[in-house]
Fold this sequence. Notes:
Layout (H helix, E strand, L loop, with lengths): L28 H21 L4 E5 L23 H4 L4 E5 L18 H14 L8 H8 L7 E3 L3 E6 L2 E6 L5 E2 L2
Antiparallel strand pairs: 1-2, 3-4, 4-5, 5-6
Helix pairs in contact: 3-4
Amino acid sequence: VALFYNSITLHDGNRYIGEDSTLSSLENFHPRLNRLLTDINDFISQLERSNTNAVVIMVPEHGAAIRGDQLQIAGLREIPTPSITKVPVGIKFVGPDWHHPGLSFKIDSATSYYGLADLLSKLILVNPFQDFKSSIVEELLGNMPSYRFVSENEGVVIIENEQQYFIRLEDDEWIDYN
């Protein structure tokens, strides 16, 4: 069974109703973040109580652009900068057959939706809930494909090359973005 959950709790256009309705999206970001984290914890708790094995993968659409940079002000996301498009991803295993509840890994290498799709396909083949060794998950995570950073929209492309970012606006020349 696959379940897709989409939340607009942190979406920039989301506004409060009532006395807090005058707050900007940056001013009410932390209360909205707390709400989202509470919702996620509640969702995972319900999954755990359901006595069903599940792999929860959380992928943000994009960052919140809480801080501006040299090209755009805080809250604006017109240019797909690394601070907006490089987002953390969370993966959690829950269920009665998951035998490593305290196990956690941190992957610092760059990956992409393709890497996550690859990981998910391998998790389906291997079934980590039937393998009592935590090393199988560590091996799968360690072998995730790595991809070079490219972020693009209608008129802007940003790439990373040798730990430096370059940007091309419309059809102009590539310029340094660091």
